[in-house]
């Protein structure tokens, strides 16, 4: 890391001689790269860093005290249980630091110092307002299959086991029957991953919004602007939906499909916790944190990557304009290579 950083900073400073970069900007890059090396470890091999490693460094920088900002006396007395937020890096500094690290790795790829850019798998992004936050980015096919596989296990029946990381016995209490939410959690993740609803549409769903036509189960989704769309459930999702209604959903006067263990409509803020809980069942090699909106991106990205008709994808997601799909179509690793290997102009003559 130390040697790579030194060579990169030399190249950055050389750009000031040609006027391609101002001296002050070059020094900002140099300072950020030095901080990155310090946080990642000078002896660390640059090519060994993964997206998770980069995430850890970005978050460590966000918590790093900013010497340029003076804290008030009462803030200086902060405790370990309540960290002093005002002394940490500002949102703009976090965004700048991430840009500097990204520029370092972009050069490292071009120079052949690393084989794979770890920024492509980093899961936090920086905003000028709000600082670092989870990125709303699609899961890869392997990551999505890992998550869906874990959700299917939860949806296998009312006897599904609790996650091994959080056994009820270790928590010192025995859960009541109405606190077993495995079927519900599996259904939530399956619907988000395969149908891509907005989280508001998901928690707003009622049992009566689902109906069967010609043997196919449909969900009538009430979307933005008072618009509705009828989306067929994949067979696997329909089976878990039926199992949830039979064994997982408690008797309640509330017509909501998804209920908390207290019998109330699930809140939007609870959905992220559900996803995180299911993620703990996924093999670590295929696990990556994702937001509900990131799963909406996942649905669009993989349907489009599999050559599903764009208008059909638009109707599933509830967009009024095909152009909107561009914001939901995320880049997938290796997709360009696959496209070029199967280039239509280079295939052999057809049998016709």
List strands and helices in order, with pairings:
Layout: H1 2-14, H2 23-40, H3 51-63, H4 73-76, H5 91-111, E1 124-127, E2 131-134, H6 141-154, H7 182-195, H8 199-204, E3 210-213, E4 216-222, E5 228-232, H9 235-248, H10 268-279, H11 292-305, H12 310-317, H13 335-341
Antiparallel strand pairs: 1-2, 3-4, 4-5
Helix pairs in contact: 1-2, 2-3, 2-5, 6-7, 7-9, 7-10, 7-11, 11-12
What does this structure look like?
The protein has 352 residues and is mainly α. The chain folds into 2 domains: 2-70 and 85-134, Tyrosine recombinase, N-terminal domain (DNA polymerase, domain 1, Orthogonal Bundle), CATH 1.10.150.130; 141-331, hpI Integrase, Chain A (Orthogonal Bundle), CATH 1.10.443. Helix content is 45%, strand content 7%. It has 13 helices and 5 strands. The strands form 2 sheets. The chain has a 3-stranded antiparallel beta sheet. Strands 1-2 form a two-stranded antiparallel sheet. β1 and β2 (131-134) form a beta hairpin. The longest helix has 21 residues, at 91-111. The N and C termini lie far apart (57 Å). The model is unreliable at 69-86, 128-134 and 157-178 (pLDDT under 50).
